[in-house]
Amino acid sequence: MKKLILSITALSLLFASCGKTQDPFEVSKQHVGLLTDSTLVKNLKTVFINDSITEIFNDNGFMGVGKSIEVFDKAGKKLLILNPEYKSDTTAVVKSVQIIDPRYKTDKNITTKSTFKDINGSYKISRIDNLINSVVVSVNEINASFTIDKKELPANIRFDMNLDIEAMHIPDNAKIKYFFINW
């Protein structure tokens, strides 16, 4: 009888621990909140049931060419910008997610309110790209690309497009403009 009660208790604890709910603002390598790397465009309304999605389909049920999908909370604040694999296919998956809202955070608490120091101290930087108006810091560990406006950089390196920017060139207090998760 004791073995039966012990077994039932153990199974109950096992099932209770499996019932963990997903944090709607957690960002990881395979998901952003409830959105995963295998979410189809046609299922976005069920994933973001409590949010508003820009109207993305025309009369034929296909998305217009060149349009991204914007997600807003009920108060009208922009949360995310989604880019599907194929822009005119409702069965396509979302390939990248631009994170706008600071409530979204990685497992190491990196948000759009974080600084370069936060990124550099939390993750191994894979690559830094020097673009016209920004610097993109890539972190392969979580498939993320963090965009920092060049206005955050020292004036002597801000305008040199041929410079290979390294971590030591970016000030610790440089703010993240936004970041992407790429699948």
TrEMBL record:
Keywords recorded for this protein, A-Z: Signal
PROSITE patterns: PROKAR_LIPOPROTEIN (PS51257)
Stretch forming the signal peptide: 1-21
Name of the featured protein: Uncharacterized protein
